[in-house]
Amino acid sequence: MQNLKNVLDKLVSWLLIVLMGAMVVNVSWQVISRYIFQNPSSFTDELARYMLVWLGTLGAAYVAGKNEHIAIDVLPNKLEGQARAKLMIFVHALILLFALIAMVMGGSNLVYITYILEQKSATLQIPLAYIYGIIPV
Hints:
Layout lengths: L1 H34 L8 H22 L8 H5 L2 H36 L11 H5 L5
């Protein structure tokens, strides 16, 4: 199980690196085309927005999996032993419950609805179901 987690972590980290690199290139092209060529690119703003959604969602999942996310640790630092372990199990259960209800069920419903309605992005004409597909994943 730990080996699978390591493989997934490595895959997600490389995907984050590629996304961040592509986003830097995309935004740089937007700046160059706007200020140097005086002809702003029409797709770069929308593409940067969608890459940021994917980057933020995958990045949050990555750091949460490594237990490096932002947390308020006043109460856990005051507890020790069994009480601290029980608190951490409770906190992780709440996070799992939220993720299942909001992200997986709600995100899957959002993807399904946008897929059925065939909604597309304004400039790129990408189906929004592909953009929102990262939420349940």
